[in-house]
Write a structure and sequence with these properties.
The chain has 151 residues and is an alpha+beta fold. It is built from six helices and five strands; from the N terminus they run ααββββααβαα.
């Protein structure tokens, strides 16, 4: 399914009905906080935000010619996943997020390296997602990416 989508609305229309409103609210929360320069679209079969090639011509080292990914939103089998590469690459940002999370949610944080998992739309801390989206500009992300990933 997700590999054949061409737009965010197309993606949302193909996920389970009970997740669609939560998805829209996450997109709205991220868009509200995200600094200027990031571009939303479909990336790797998911909804994603990236640094466009016009702002970072070097692009993503794993996929030459592709924009630099930053955030992604996906509907997985048992949860909604928000992937935040900034938290993966910046321990300070990760520490801030993990300490703030309990202030915004009654649920225990379910997180992998860059993936925050939400099993129920009612448990999504939208205000926190807006706030974490404000924490890294395009320039900050490029610096962090080059320091941590680009060899």
């Amino acid at each position: 399914m997700q590999n054949q989508v061409t737009s965010t609305e197309d993606y949302i229309s193909q996920i389970p009905q009970e997740r669609q409103e939560g998805f829209r609210k996450i997109i709205e929360a991220v868009q509200k906080g995200l600094p200027e320069g990031f571009r939303m679209g479909i990336s790797n079969g998911m909804i994603g935000w990236c640094v466009p090639l016009e702002l970072y011509p070097a692009g993503y080292h794993c996929t030459p010619g592709a924009p630099l990914p930053f955030l992604a939103l996906a509907s997985q089998k048992n949860f909604i996943a928000l992937y935040h590469m900034g938290m993966y690459a910046d321990p300070e940002l990760l520490n801030w997020f993990t300490s703030e999370y309990p202030k915004h949610s009654k649920r225990k944080l379910d997180m992998g390296k860059s993936c925050v998992r939400f099993k129920k739309a009612d448990d999504i801390p939208f205000e926190l997602l807006t706030e974490v989206s404000t924490k890294m500009s395009v320039q900050d992300w490029i610096r962090c990416y080059e320091a941590n990933f680009k060899k």
